[in-house]
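Narrative of activities, Objective 1.

The group set out to show that a structural description can be obtained from nothing but a protein's sequence at a throughput compatible with the screening campaign. Below is one input-output pair from the validation batch, recorded exactly as produced.
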Amino acid sequence: VEAFQRFAIAAREIGATTDQVAELVGGLQRMAIVSGAAPQQIAAGTQQLAQALASGVLQGDELRSILENMPPLAAALARELGVSI
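Output recorded for this entry:
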């Protein structure tokens, strides 16, 4: 619920729908389960991602947190952006 609320706030900034937010949160949860990340790591990574989406910029500290706490998400972001980790 907290993750959905965080992303819903960010979604307003980029024009995403509630369904898109639900799909994003569900995907992040599945990715976290598969990676075996601890709840604290998942919370830290999702919070930083939500902040980046809300601001429209993925800053260094946010990226570092995602790299450390949710490596599969970092790999997916890099793949989509066509860059290396």
